Every structure is written in structure tokens, then in C-alpha cells.
């Protein structure tokens, strides 16, 4: 398994940065990409239909995503969303015709006047994990629909074909003490170990199937 860990927090001293580092400690072969270290314009100044002229750092990021079989995104929750720099990263990198495309509708639907297309994720074959922090406690996130997790896990990664995406939440950060944070960091490292074991097991299961095919 080749894992790419995307750290979406602007601050290298943040809890998210520490969680990303501890995940890598549990999965030592993982590649760590900190979005804050990249040089790029996070704004889609020409919209979704503008030219796909990527800065060198974003070209490299795409290559690292394509080389990975497992993507881990680490981000805080800010205003029921994510930091602007991470949103800009997704806007620029996970673009149409690279991360997804729309295929023509079946002729029968077209004849009925139905418009649009059928989306296809072009990053299929990869799995994902989301480590997401928030000041909002977990129980309140569940009452309000946990919007940020759904956007990243389902509407960005999942829409691009990355499935399944497992979500781990670290809620109530503002009220957490040192012991709680230490437990979270240990959990992130354990998840790194778990992902290695899970994907190693899946790879082993596929070998006999290939031999018998």
C-alpha cells in the first residue's frame, strides 16, 4: 500500500499537523504532503471552465495522488467547512476531467429530454481516511449533520471515486486537556498501523484469487 497523507492545516504547530505526523509514525512508508508548504493560487479566478494551468507544486501533488492507493486527509473544521487553503487545493487539483467527468446519459433518457450527465470518479481504486478536528463536540456534530465530514469524505473524495472513506473525528478541541490530546495522537498512530494491516490483508487475499482466475 502506498499512502499519501494530506495535511490541510495552515499552521505547522497545529494539532492537525501533529495528528498527521503521528499517523505517519504508524505508517512509516506514508508520504506526507503539507498543503501550507505548496506555492499556488488557491482561487479559481477563471471558474471551473478556465484553463488547467497548474503550478509545479500542484503538478507534483497530482503525481503523488496518482501514485497512492490510500489517501488520508487531516483538517480542522472552520465555520462548518475547511481552511481556505485546503478548499483551494481541492478546487485546483481535483478538477473536472482529472478527478471526475460526466458521461453521456443513456439514449432513452436523452430522448425524454433529460439533461445532464452521469458522474464518474476518475480516482477509483483508492481508499481514503479523514481525520477531522473541531471545537464542536462530537454529539453536537451529529445533531447538526456533520456537514464538513460529509463534504470532504462523500462529495470530494467519494465523488472522485475514492471509496470507502473512513472518518475519525476529534471533537471538543477547545475544551480538551493534555491527556485527551495525547490520547488522540496515540489513536492517529494506531490508525496508521491499522491501515497498513488492513491493506496488507486485502492484498494477501487477492493473490490466491488471481492465481485461481
Automatic annotation (TrEMBL):
Please list the residue ranges annotated as the Flavodoxin-like fold domain.
1-179
Q: Which UniProt keywords apply?
A: Oxidoreductase
Q: Does the keyword Oxidoreductase apply?
A: yes
Domain of life where this protein originates: Bacteria
What GO molecular-function term can you cite, just one? Answer: NAD(P)H dehydrogenase (quinone) activity
GO CC terms: cytosol
Indicate whether S-adenosyl-L-methionine appears among the record's keywords. no
> What family does the Swiss-Prot or TrEMBL record give for this protein?
Belongs to the NAD(P)H dehydrogenase (quinone) family.
Q: Which PANTHER family match?
A: NAD P H OXIDOREDUCTASE-RELATED (PTHR10204), NAD(P)H DEHYDROGENASE [QUINONE] 1 ISOFORM 1 (PTHR10204:SF34)
- What is this protein's name? Putative NADPH-quinone reductase (Modulator of drug activity B)
